[in-house]
Structures are given as C-alpha cells and as structure tokens.
Design goal:
Length: 541
C-alpha cells in the first residue's frame, strides 16, 4: 500500500523510519533483536512476536512480567484474527468475599496484593498464537529470553527511571517477593548496572519445555498456588488450570478511506473507534495539523468516547449495550453534534488510571503482521513475585468495581474492564498497519491522535509518533507534552481546557510502535517507527 507520506516534515526526535522486509518494533532493543533472531532462524512474525514478548518480561519488568495479561490482532496473510488473553477472577472472588474483607462501603478492589490478581493470561496467549500460527518449536522461542534472564542485561535509561519511581512506592515494595526480585541490592538497579533474573530463567525454560503446561497445570502453577496460600491469596491450581484465552472477531470503524480494527470488550479499544466515528462528521483535515481547532475536535471526541466506555464496557455478557450499539453510526452522528468549536465541555467521563504496559509489533516478508500488547498494569502490577520462579503478577483485578449491579462488578471467573489494546489498520480488506500506543487510558487516545496525523495529514509513521501529544484525564482536565506549540496550548486554554504541562513523557503520554505495509512485503517491505519516549527500537532485514 504505497502512501503519499511527507518524509521531510517532522518533530524533534532521536529516531528515523526503518525500512525492511522483516521487522520487529518494540520498546527495548534486546527484545526487538530477539524477535529478529527468530525471523533469521526461519520463524514467522508470530514466532518473532512471542520471542520478543518473552524477552520484554525481563528487560522492562516495570511494565510487564511472566504474570501479565495480553491481547493480539494479527493478519495471517489472508484474514484478521483477534486474541483475548486477559485473565479471569479466581473462583473465590464473590462480591461477599470482598464485602467481608473490606467492608460494605468499599467501592473498588485493592491496587496491590493478591486481591488484585486475576489469572495471568499472557503465557497462554503465547502458546495459543504458536499452536495456531507459529512455525518454529515453542522451546526455541523461549531461548533468547532464557539466555538474557541467566546472563543478565545492563538496565537502560528510561526503564531505570520507572524502576526507581516504583522502588519508592511502599504499597508495592512491601509485597511478598518484590524486593528479593527487583531490589537486588536493596534498591533499584542503576543505569548500565547488570540485572540478572535466574528465577525467571527457570520458569521460561519450563514454559518452553512444556508449551506452557507447567505454568497452568504443573510445577509453576503449584508454586503460584502455594505462594498464594502462604501469603493470603485465594488463587488455586484449579483457577490456573481452568484458564484458556479466547479467539475473537475484531470490531471496526471506517475512517478516511481506511478501517481501524480493535479487540472487542472487555477492553477499551472501542473508545478509539467511537472517537473516530465522531470525528468522521467533523472534517478534522480542514484544519491545520497542530492547530487549536484540530486538537480541540480530537479532544472532545475522545471525551465523548470515554463517557460511554467507562459507563458501559465490561465482560460482553454483562454489558447493558452491545459494541454494535455503541458504534451505531446514527448515534455517533448525534454525539458529534454535541461538540462546540468554541468551548471545552465535560461529558462526564470516568476517572482513568495510569498503566504499565509493553507493546510490540512484527511483520515478515510473507505478509504476516502481528499487533501484540502485554501488561502487568500500574507499573509492576500487584507487586507479588513468586519466589524461585520470577513470576511477577499483574493487578488487573483492580479494574473491577464492587458497585452492586454495575456491568463491571466482580464475580468468579469474570474478566475485568481492561485498558490494554492492540490496533490494526486495513484498506479495502487488505492489511495496512499494525500498531499500538501503550499506557493506561492513553492507549485509545494515542491510537486516534497518531492515526489522524497519518491519514488526515499525511505525516509518516515516525513523525506521527514523535509529534507532541495531549492526554485527557477527566472533566475538563488535560495534560499536554512540553513540546506542544505554545500558541496551540494557549488557544486550548482559552476554550476552557484545564491544562497542566507535565514534562514526564514516559509516564504520561504513552509510547507507540508502528509497522506500515508498503505494497508487496516480499518486494517493497514495510516502514516502521518506534517511540522516542522509550528505550526501544525498530529493527529489520
């Protein structure tokens, strides 16, 4: 799909677009190289994505781990497939269980500890992808990660910053197993300091040898359950053994001659689709790219999307509306009419929280493309790390509510509202781009902002990635990156947007990875971008 991008226009960045027929793009160079190594061994894009994801659990532990959840959208060469590998609540998690423990007034589940941990889905997701689409033996895909866990790696700059911030959070560092795993000298590692994670090497080897069975039914599952029993958790081997990820049909929205695909609920990907469905009626491209009007329209569309998403999205069986109803074109046309060009409005969205997530994308010359996201949530997740096995557990249970009758109320075996979302773009039924932007509620906002830049304004993927972003919080509250044009910021403020300028782009404005198909992948290949807000790289051959 040749596209008339502007290759000269750009923003301050350390990155240039990468052109190749086989590409891996993610937020750590060692992980990107692991995926490339697998492609070089004859593996396909799915094999490369799994190997990359396994390494990411080690090299960016402040965002994900072996106890993460995951989602993927992939093009197999002929059609699109979605995978939901988000975990389910333990069987003990009845509303009564939480009321007894935390009192009738409690509104939400804890942020840390066992009562925030749902069954980890990522490893099962790797296995499901490998079994259906992979080429190489599963153990081979774990080999780069095993080697890095054993030998260790030098901690990079941005990961170290986030690690240090987490080390100051008492509610996290006091969790069983955390300090032993992640504060090896009683502190976070320094930049360039060697970090080894031999416990994780043991688990990765077992996962490779048993195609994940040890994690859900064998030695690792027993260790997780025993650790839970010792330290006040309810998770059992039966909870782990009963888990399987779900293949799903992605949901979609047409925009600017293309189609954006997202994973359906229990995730928030629908927010990006709603926002684009609203923007379709507002001719964003009529305004200059970084103008007040362009940014204002996007911000207001995103607010409207979140207002619905936080109210309705949960496990599909518990939702009061279907995804199709939320994306109804006539409804979105009506929503678009609510936007006032002259003022910012509060459309009553919920109160989003920050995330801890990694995103990666891979593509090979056969045409296979993978959009993959994996996360512990809120940085290091629950804070729990299984001794001897290096499994750091997510805290996705915090995404449930204890509010009686709410679609997202906790229940045994249920999946919580989820923030992590991979994205995929097609045109006339053919693949165009595999991409994602990580970071809590920033994800659908990043999907929309970068896509508008590419489709409406012709910015190339790296320029769209480098461009300054805004992040909507709640009410009229907005953060903007310090690089945003001062006149634009003043103009938004004059419309009533309440703007706080945060100079902490890693934490607050997400980080994207993009692979755009240029035509026949075996001939023309792809162009890839990697976000300068992370330590990462796009690499290829």
């Amino acid at each position: 799909m040749t596209h008339s991008f502007d290759w000269n226009g750009g923003y301050a960045s350390q990155r240039m677009p990468v052109f190749a027929r086989n590409i891996v793009s993610t937020s750590h160079p060692l992980a990107a190289q692991a995926g490339l190594r697998i492609l070089g061994q004859g593996g396909n894009a799915v094999d490369a994505a799994i190997a990359t994801a396994a390494v990411m659990t080690l090299v960016e532990p402040c965002s994900n781990g072996l106890g993460s959840d995951a989602f993927a959208i992939l093009w197999d060469g002929k059609k699109l497939h979605g995978l939901n590998a988000s975990g389910r609540a333990p069987q003990a998690w009845t509303p009564e269980y939480f009321r007894r423990k935390y009192g009738a007034e409690a509104k939400s589940l804890p942020k840390r500890g066992w009562d925030a941990v749902t069954v980890p889905g990522a490893v099962a997701g790797w296995v499901a992808l490998s079994e259906r689409f992979g080429k190489l033996p599963f153990a081979d895909l774990m080999a780069p990660a095993v080697e890095i866990a054993e030998r260790g790696y030098a901690v990079p700059v941005i990961v170290q910053q986030k690690w240090t911030l987490a080390a100051a959070v008492q509610e996290l560092t006091s969790q069983p197993g955390f300090a032993q795993a992640f504060l090896p000298k009683g502190r976070a590692p320094a930049v360039g300091e060697l970090f080894q994670f031999k416990d994780a090497a043991r688990t990765l080897r077992l996962i490779g040898q048993t195609k994940g069975q040890a994690f859900y039914q064998g030695e690792v599952a027993e260790a997780i359950a025993a650790f839970a029993k010792q330290t006040g958790g309810t998770m059992t081997v039966a909870d782990l053994a009963g888990y399987s990820p779900e293949w799903v049909e992605p949901i979609a929205q047409d925009y600017a001659g293309h189609t954006l695909h997202e994973i359906p609920p229990n995730g928030q990907g629908i927010a990006a689709l709603i926002a684009l469905g609203i923007l379709k009626h507002l001719d964003v491209a009529a305004h200059k790219v970084d103008s007040v009007a362009s940014q204002h329209l996007q911000i207001e569309a995103m607010k409207l999307a979140f207002a619905d998403v936080y109210n309705y999205v949960a496990e599909p069986g518990d939702m009061k509306l279907t995804a199709a109803q939320m994306l109804d074109p006539a409804y979105l046309a009506e929503r678009a009419k609510l936007i006032d060009m002259k003022k910012a409005q509060d459309f009553k969205a919920g109160n989003p929280v920050k995330g801890g997530t990694i995103y990666l994308t891979t593509a090979d010359e056969s045409g296979m493309m993978v959009s993959f996201i994996q996360s512990n949530y809120m940085g290091f997740g629950s804070g729990l790390v299984v001794p001897g096995y290096g499994v750091s557990l997510q805290n996705r249970g915090h995404g449930f509510t204890l509010e009686v009758g709410h679609a997202n109320q906790v229940a045994p075996g249920k999946r919580p509202f989820h923030t992590i979302i991979p994205a995929f773009l097609t045109k006339d039924g053919q693949p165009v781009m595999s991409y994602g932007v990580m970071g809590g509620n920033m994800q659908p906002q990043g999907h929309m902002q970068t896509l508008v830049r590419m489709l409406d304004y012709g910015q190339n993927p790296q320029a769209a990635c480098d461009a300054p972003r805004w992040r909507y919080n709640e009410g009229l509250s907005l953060n903007v990156e310090s690089a945003m044009n001062a006149d634009t910021v003043d103009g938004l403020r004059a419309l009533g947007h309440q703007i706080a300028d945060i100079n902490d782009s890693y934490q607050d404005f997400g980080a994207g990875q993009f692979i755009w198909r240029q035509g026949d992948p075996a001939v023309d290949g792809y162009v890839a971008a990697s976000d300068p807000r992370r330590d990462g790289a796009a690499v290829g051959f």
